[in-house]
């Protein structure tokens, strides 16, 4: 049976699954994968991985079953929103998928675990009064860039990470556009910049 497993490529991954722990996997994930991710993504996932390591770090990969993942998924769900639980599962699933590529395990057990249903997002707009109060508070902030960033966010609908990664070569004052090089889906996009937001950039 062992010889047959070796021929089929099933024997050595099982040995690796017994030898490597979740802590081993997450350490390699931080070393190999984090440098390829945006800093804003890494910032959140550091805490996700720390939680998984504190809970499952001592388990060998061969001991990680869908039933075990379900147990800790439900533990997360007692103190966190469904959307947050999904993010915790996503980063663990990605790590285990890479473990399959590295031939440490034969399959990803998280792929067999049901993800909590994410609630539908709300459509929410600031009222004129809320917008005025927000901008007034930004003007009083010690951070001299906060007012500009918030005005740009309101004017363009850009995400925080997109705005914080913006550089002067990405600002075209003649064409009145901003080009975001780092977006959520990884594709570059340009948006119009007009009105008060454009005036503020012109003054810089």
Describe this structure in words.
β2 and β3 (189-192) form a beta hairpin. The protein has ten helices and three strands, in the order αααααααααβββα. It is elongated. The chain folds into two domains: 2-112, Tyrosine recombinase, N-terminal domain (DNA polymerase, domain 1), CATH 1.10.150.130; 128-203, Intergrase catalytic core (hpI Integrase, Chain A, Orthogonal Bundle). A three-stranded antiparallel beta sheet has the order 1-2-3, with no helix packed on it. It is mainly α.
List the helices and strands and how they pair.
Elements: H1 2-7, H2 11-19, H3 22-32, H4 39-56, H5 66-77, H6 82-101, H7 128-139, H8 146-156, H9 160-164, E1 171-172, E2 177-180, E3 189-192, H10 195-203
Antiparallel strand pairs: 1-2, 2-3
Helix pairs in contact: 3-4, 4-6, 8-10
Please name the defining characteristics of this protein.
about 55% helix; about 200 residues; mainly alpha; 3-stranded antiparallel sheet; hpI Integrase, Chain A; DNA polymerase, domain 1
Summarize the structure.
The protein has 204 residues and is mostly helical. The protein contains 10 helices and 3 strands. The model has no long low-confidence stretch (mean pLDDT 88).
Number of helices: 10
Estimated helix fraction: 55-70%
Determine Rg (CA atoms, Å).
23 Å
Distance between the ends = 73 Å
- The tally of domains stands at 2
Question: Order of strands across the widest beta sheet?
Answer: 1-2-3
Beta-strand percentage?
A: under 5%
Structural class: mainly alpha
Average pLDDT? 88
- CATH T-level fold name of the largest domain: DNA polymerase, domain 1
Main sheet characteristics = 3 strands, antiparallel
- Indicate the low-confidence ranges by residue numbers: none
Superfamily (CATH H level) name of the largest domain: Tyrosine recombinase, N-terminal domain
Shape: elongated
Secondary-structure arrangement, i.e. CATH architecture of the largest domain: Orthogonal Bundle
In the CATH hierarchy, what is the class of the largest domain? Mainly Alpha
Number of strands: 3
